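Please, structure for the following, as tokens.
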Amino acid sequence: IQSVSKQDNIVVKLTIFDDKDFWCITVSDNGSGIKKENEEKIFEPNFTTKNSGMGLGLAMVKNIINDFNGTIRFDTELGKGTTFFVQIPKFN
């Protein structure tokens, strides 16, 4: 909500699918994207670009995904939005 201009409609798309040995999740938005200088810090605890908040959300998400031996990455384009890709191995 905070990264979309007031003139734009907010779009968040969630996809979950089965890919052989993994559960895959994508989360896409039409926000402002992530600046290049922030890309390496985005999963660090206490990092935020907002005026409020603790900067713990994505750090916690990454820790949870790591606890399940999964991976998280993202693609971003300034002015267009960001897509996060999560892969979590299936347990048999």
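The helical segments are 57-67. The mean pLDDT is 92.
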